[in-house]
Amino acid sequence: MSKKSCVPKIASRCETCHGAGVLPGRCREDELVPCPTCKGKGVIPHKVITKRVEEMPCDNPNCHEGRVQQIQMVDGREVVIEKACPVCEGYGVMYREYEEITTENEKCPTCEGRAMITAGEMRRRKLEAFCPDCHGTGCKLEEEPAKRAAMLGAFAFLYPAVAVVSMGFKFMLRSVKAAFSARKSKSKDVPETEEQQ
């Protein structure tokens, strides 16, 4: 799963269709554009369903080679009667059908596997489709310019705050140094006055 970005995206003109939203759109005759059939992949995936039948033993635990024994009371006596198993219908085995779905890629008939086709050829063959890059909108959302703008905005906001904090820290250090130097000068002055007395 792709995580949604919190950074806003900026819309810019799609370079593939030149803002037309469709191909060939405003493209030059010799300009290569993604094939509209395979969406620029060169191959067309299609599902292949393969059916197979497997022979399995009967699920009934009382089944023995397709026969099931049952005890019935006949004239006050217990009589063992054999019947065909109701699960496997007397065959002793069960047949189950499975479907295997695989994906196979075949070469695109429009671009013959090249994935790209010229705009002139599309016009001649009257092929037109929505642009696969912008999904028919004519513009693409780009996150990189928005990221740069967000980073510059954050820097412009944080730089003055950091500058003010650093100036305050320098001012505090100067006042502490001044207090220490004043204290040292007072301690030196005190013994001289005592000697004079």
Biggest sheet architecture: 3 strands, antiparallel
Number of alpha- plus pi-helical segments: 2
Mean pLDDT: 78
Q: Give a count of the beta strands, DSSP E runs of length 2 or more.
A: 11
Helix coverage percent of residues? 25-40%
Strand order of the largest sheet: 5-6-7
Terminal-residue CA separation = 88 Å
Count of domains: 3
Query: What ranges have pLDDT less than 50 throughout 5 or more consecutive residues?
Result: 192-197
What does this structure look like?
The chain has 197 residues and is α+β, with helices and mostly antiparallel strands. The protein has 3 domains: 10-41 and 110-142, no CATH class; 43-107, no CATH class; 143-186. The protein has helices at residues 119-124, 144-196, and strands spanning 10-13, 22-23, 32-34, 43-57, 63-64, 67-74, 77-84, 93-107, 116-118, 129-130, 139-142. The chain has a 3-stranded antiparallel sheet, with no helix packed on it. The chain is flat and about 130 Å long. It starts with 9 loop residues before the first strand and ends with a helix.
SSE topology sketch:
Blueprint (H helix, E strand, L loop, with lengths): L9 E4 L8 E2 L8 E3 L8 E15 L5 E2 L2 E8 L2 E8 L8 E15 L8 E3 H6 L4 E2 L8 E4 L1 H53 L1
Antiparallel strand pairs: 1-11, 2-10, 3-9, 4-8, 5-6, 6-7
